[in-house]
Every structure is written in C-alpha cells, then in structure tokens.
Fold this sequence. Notes:
- The complex is a heterodimer of chains A (268) and B (240).
- Chain A is mainly α and 268 residues long.
- Chain A contains eleven helices and no strands.
- By secondary structure, chain B is an alpha/beta fold.
- Chain B has one domain: Rossmann fold (3-Layer(aba) Sandwich).
Amino acid sequence: MKVEKVFDSFIINALIGGICVSIIAGGLGCFVVWKKMAYFGDSLSHSSLLGIAIGIVLGFNSTIGTFLVCIVFATLLTYLQNKKILSNDTLLGILAHASLSIGIIAISLSNQYVNLDAYLFGDILTVTDNEVVWFVLSTILVISTLFFIWEKLVLMTINESVAKAENINTFLIQSIFLTLLVIFVATCVKVVGILLITSMLIIPAATARQISSSPGSMALVSGLLGILSIIIGVYLSIFVDIPTGPSIIFTLTLFFIIVLSIFRKQTS
Amino acid sequence: MLIKAENISVVRNNKEILKNIDLTINPRDFITILGPNGAGKSMLLKCLLEFFSPDKGKIIKSDDLKVSYTPQDFVIDKSIPITSMDFIMLNKNIKKDEINNISKEFNISEILNKQLSHLSGGELQKILITRSLIDNPNLLILDEPTQNLDVSGQLSFYKFLDKIYAEREISILMVSHDLHMVISTTKKVICLSNHICCSGEPSSITKDPEFINLFGHDFADMMSLYKHDLKHNHEGRESV
C-alpha cells in the first residue's frame, strides 16, 4: 500500500463505518458489561449468520435478514429466560450454536459462492457509499434513543425493583435496549465480523471502566477508545497487510492492557 | 387510609403463597411484618407495589398515595461507576443544592461523593432511603433493610429510620426480623405465614398463642423480655 492511498475513498468509507460502530458500541457496551450480557451478545451475533443465510437464499439485503433474525432470537431468548426451564448459560449455548449451524448449512445448500471469511471476521474495507449512509443513520437512531432512555436504563441496571417502584416500564425499556443491541449487531457484522462483535462491545467498556467515575464518562471514554482503535486498526491492517477486523480488536486489546496496567481500579 | 389490601390471595406453582390477606395502612402507621422464610412477606409488598396483581382480591389505593420502596438484597455491581450523589439524582428532578440540604439533615454528606460500590452495607441503605425520600412519599416500604448489616450497622440504621419517622409525615411498612430493635417505634406487628396469623401492638403480640406457635416460646420470651426491659428503663428515667 502506497502512502498517497491513505485517503482513498474506500479507506474513508471504512473509517466512517468503523467510527459509527465505535460510537454505538461505546454506549451499548457499558450496559452489556454492567448487565453481564457478554455471552448474550455473543449468542446474538452468532445467530446473525442465520439472518445472512436467509438473506442470501431469499435474495434480499443481508443486513435486513440479520436484523429480523436477531429480533426473533432476542425475543425467543427473553421468553425462554423468563420461563426458567434451563439456566441462562445453557440456553444461550444451545440457541447460539444451533442458529450458527443452521446458518452455515443454509449457505452451503444455497449453492451460491459466499465469502464466509468476510462474515466471520468482517470486511470493513469493502464498505460501500450506501452502507455508509446506513451506518450514519443507525448511529443517529441508536444514540438518540439511548440518550432518551439513559437514566431509566441505568437505574434499572443498578436495581430493577427500585426502577419498577418508580413507575418505570422496565419491560419496555429492556425491549428498546435489546432492539438497539440488535441494530448494532446487524451493523457491525460488516466491520469486525460475527466472531468479533462482542469484543467491540466489551473491550472498550472494560478499558473505560478503569478510568471512569460515572456511567456517562464510561460510555464516552469507551466510544473514544473504539474510535481510536478503528483508526489505528484500519491503517495497521493496510500497512502491515493483516485482516482488518482482527487488527482492530488487537488494537483494542493493547489499549486494555496498557490502561489496566497503569490505572487498575476495578475488575469489570 | 393510604392503601388497602382486600382479601388478596396469590397462587404460585399450585401453592397458595398469600391467603385471604386483609391489610390497611393509614397515615402515620408504622407496621412491621414478621414471618418465617417463604411466608409470602416479599410477595405481599410486591402486590401492594403492584409488581404483581393478586389472583384474588384487590388493592385499593388512595389518590394521594406516594409510595417509595427499598428492595431486599440491594447490592451494587462493581462494574458500574457511579457516586452516591449521581445515584440519588438518577431519574429524579432535583438540584444538587437540595441534595446537599437533605444529606446534612441525614448526616450523609461525607459519603455523597464516594463511589456507591465503596460504601458499607449500612451506608448503602442510608443512600437508598435518602433517594427514596426525594419525592416526599407518604409511605415507605422496606423489605428486610438490615439483612446484610452487622449489629452496630442495624442499630445505626434503625436510629436513622426513627428519625425519619419522627420528623416526616410518613407511614412505614417494613419486613424485618429485628423486632427487638423496632419494638419501641413500631405501632403494629403483623405475623405472616401465608395468611395473617396474628397482629397487634408489639407489647401484646408476643403473648399471642399464634405468635408463640409460629416462632416458638424462646423467641416470644426474648421479645417480651426486650419489651420489659424497655418499660423498666422508661420508668427508671421518669423517676429521676
């Protein structure tokens, strides 16, 4: 890669897409850490492969397919969690890998050439202009919604009963939060891929926890760390010629280790 | 009347957790609910708070009822960075000045800027109750507030609660096992074991055969002893 190509349009698109995803992840990731939903996020992203497969087989946009499948998955999961037939852990393990397997089977039966690597590890350098528009719009939607429900969601994350007693509709707020999470997953597949989505949520938030003293500042720091890692990760992948998704997550992890060794305050 | 449970029953997994409960809470009441594990104490509170609707009977609320609630087992996860001040202000329409005034009143100024996860159990309960008093409720519902406190923490907490009850136009409904600690303040004790076994003033309740039946002679004797001690001190003070 020559240096004059540093500002090529495909790199600019990649950076805008990545920055959008980092901003969303900054806000949502904190709640995933606080609510101990890392495995939930992982299962949700695994299920997105089924959405991609359905999109490919039926011939429509894979982002919409992912969104729909993830919504069904999240609803089913919440319903089964409330039924308490199985432990959460077991339930997530079953649903995540069942939908991942069905997704892979559907793709292989479709007899179409599909670059699985792109879905598993992301393909941020092929973000199109149209996709950039989708990234920006979904970022505005998610962040403004999150801003609107922020205090209620923080309160019910700290204690659901207290929130209920203060007449907060906890079911509604939780459903909105899960929908935002689904939008994030559908958006993020392109950037870091199914297997690395959860780390976009968890690593910046866990890093930010070490240097934050309020929920808001943790989200802000988390978003900034994500943005920084996207920029460094993208250029690192271009100059060293390594896959972009893993390069971004690797950068995030470096930040985590550096911050942890300097500021270690709390375990997240 | 602030709130009234009329003949409510709750069935879960074919078991009647609450059975024909009648309970009225009036202004300035201080009611303590006692009962063994699984007696339906928390369920009764949750029905009054309308988290669940009863399978039978109904809850009648007065128009001016403003209830606040502190749940059982309130623990704060270490992964959430938040100061006591920010927690009190969360989802409340209040200025920092007002919180500073209230915190002086309740003697919690020193812990306002501490992280919630660094507070002791007793401090956490005080912050929780301060938060619940922000909207000037007329009914405070507490579910085993001293469960995680050591004895000195319990004493300090009940002193705090007495002060609130004395200084504010408020009713208190509390689930607690520490009858000996509240016996001087609480006006009425209700013994719950899926149904209301007995209820009455703390001094007379320990002699009730149902109470003795539910908690055994030892507990009843211990409680009446506390009451006796208290009277004795009181008379002693008067004679000086």
